[in-house]
């Protein structure tokens, strides 16, 4: 029999096989039916925070088409549960699944602020923008409890070091006081992800993220305070949000974004299986059409790993997306520029205070 069991409030609906593991955990329909008949809970669906203590926190980014040189992540795994997230695959390196484990087993790097400070004080380190959330969102729900992002921002300010932020959570406004101080020195740039203007689309694509309304409010508040914001309209998924590009661009520009960026969705590694399972359960009438259109953007596959092409796509549908983005930029972002962050101050603050001599 086919079960109608679903994991509420999550993106992934199962744990995919970890390619690095010799074991595979499977939730069978007969087990789910047994739990139903016995009145037992098959899955408590709770988020687990797991403390970890890495030896380093700042990562050099070698991919030539990512748009950042260094990144750091205070958390691994992300409770937001975005079904398309490329970071899911990284959870396999920690011994977990890229599916539900990615959303429910969150690794918390409690020593992140200490490691960051050691890095910035290092005599060999030369200032270069470090981006928070190169892998998972630094303002995901865990941040409310652990406040590692805020502590790291305080260190960036102390050492006058440039920092970028990528997030889709309005929790960033909690740290407006620090962001203002960083911006006084040209040390902060924020990227807010806005995938759709439809709350229903947002809910199924990104189940535990901030609402679209609050994200737009975050763009406006940051912009009104002079903090530069780039809107990430990513990923563009054919058949789901590709028709929204112009309206998305117009709306984020109206709220003060200085620039916009986009990617065409690609479903690499385990994400292809997770997304395929999800869309057949969530949007069964559109599933085949959407999957075929994604494949058309990547030469017949759900994924393309070639640098420079993997996030842009190829073919007619990808060309249509690019043309729409170009029109949006010309129409709504003319004469707007996202500033380059200041790297000149840090050398004088290596010991945590301005050197006078």
From TrEMBL:
A Pfam family in this protein? Radical_SAM
The answer, when asked if Lipid metabolism is one of the entry's keywords, is no
Q: Which residues form the Radical SAM core domain?
A: 64-310
Which InterPro entries does this chain map to?
Elp3/MiaA/NifB-like_rSAM, MJ0683-like, rSAM, rSAM_sf
PROSITE patterns named among the record's database cross-references = RADICAL_SAM
Alphabetically sorted, this entry's keywords are: Iron, Iron-sulfur, Metal-binding
Show the PANTHER family listed in the entry: SLR0285 PROTEIN
Kindly provide the name given to this protein in its UniProt entry.
DNA repair photolyase
